Amino acid sequence: MTTATERIQTVPEPALLPPITGEGVFSAEEVRQMQEATEGVVSPAVLRDLFTEDELSPVAGGSNRAVVIPDLLRLPADLNAVFRSMFEQLQTGGFLVCRLETSQQRKQRLIRKLPGGIRQVYYLGDYALHRVAPRLFLTRTLYRKLFVSLRAISKAEVIGRLYYAGFSVDTVLEAPDHLVIVARKTSEQYTERRPSSEGPLLRLWRVGRGGRSFCVYKFRTMHPYSEHLQEYLIQTNGLETGGKFRNDFRITTPGKWMRKYWIDEIPMVINLLKGDMKLVGVRPLSAHYLSLYPEEVQQARFQFKPGLLPPYYADMPQNFAEIVESERRYLDAYAKAPLRTDLRYLGRIVYNILWKRARSK
Predict the structure, then answer these.
(1) Per residue in 277-287, is it b (16+ CB within 10 Å) or e — as a string?
(2) Do residues 218 and 89 both lie within one domain?
(3) 309 or 262, greater pLDDT
(4) In angstroms, rounded to a whole number, what is the distance separating the alpha carbons of residues 56 and 219?
């Protein structure tokens, strides 16, 4: 008697998957891993029954256990609308499988096929057309008239859009030329979320004084929809030294440089002028990241405005527990002597930045 894995490996490639480029869409190993991740819901038989080359899998409202999208970026529709529709058509616990070429894989494909000397110029043009133009207010409408769908999207953005649509991501399979994402519908009802900004100026919702939410303004250093991935990163990557996410793939290459010199935080001057923040104080956090803090520290944070320059740069803690303790000491001291505490911390922060070369990541 053959095992499930053996049965998958013996299914002929053409029977597994209708061709898009003359080759198989999913490899036998990818099917095996998808079957394992979905406890058999996504199987070779399901792929044959649900899978068509040019359109979405046939679905019926709220009764599907699995939907497969063989080439996500060929769909002539807004991805948020597609994912929201799939959420409504899947039963709770059902799976959405998406296959796509990410922007990084697209870059490698374009560079690989072009001779040296013109590959960089060609790629810069492709980047401006398919990565920048769809995001800018002045060119967004024209782009969508010229191209029926997005041509380039990052791994972080597509996973972020899935979380924005109400899914959680169980498995990500990376091949050299494509990505396969297995997402699960974990709740019956869709929870309405604030729309995500895609332009160069980012508005992030953070928790401030009194537990009230407010918008923090920053220059974009992460891929669009990355703000919805904090839960995913906590579960998959965890935190590194300094309390940042380990292997944070949300940050763009220019973004790493901007963060190193705090260029991304220049727009936060708007928050200072509006009175949402003060110069020195604990950093404003997202609701999800704040939930990792002990309850008493959360309550202490709610008593005061957050700050642009955090006690982190005064104490230079090495892990999350030390960050929490650093903030606790600052908040206790500020409650007793606000002005003296901020002046003392400001001096230590300036010293560490100028003389000890403390930098953000």
Answers:
(1) bbebbbbbbbe
(2) no
(3) 309
(4) 36
DSSP secondary structure letters along 125-184: HHHIIIIITTTSHHHHHHHHHH-SS-S---HHHHHHHHHHTTEEEEEEEE-SS-EEEEEE
**The sheet that has 90-100: what strands, in order across it?**
64-69, 90-100, 179-185, 167-174
List pLDDT tens digits, range 77-99.
688 888 988 898 888 888 888 88
Q: Is residue 261 part of a domain?
A: yes
For 113, the domain range is 105-145
217/209 Cα distance (integer angstroms):
17
243 and 180 within one domain = no
Query: Is residue 63 domain-shared with residue 132, that is, in the same domain?
Result: no
Q: Mean pLDDT throughout 165-193? A: 89
Q: Which residue has the higher pLDDT, 10 or 147?
A: 147
> In terms of domains, do 19 and 135 share one?
no
The answer to whether residues 51 and 163 belong to one domain is yes
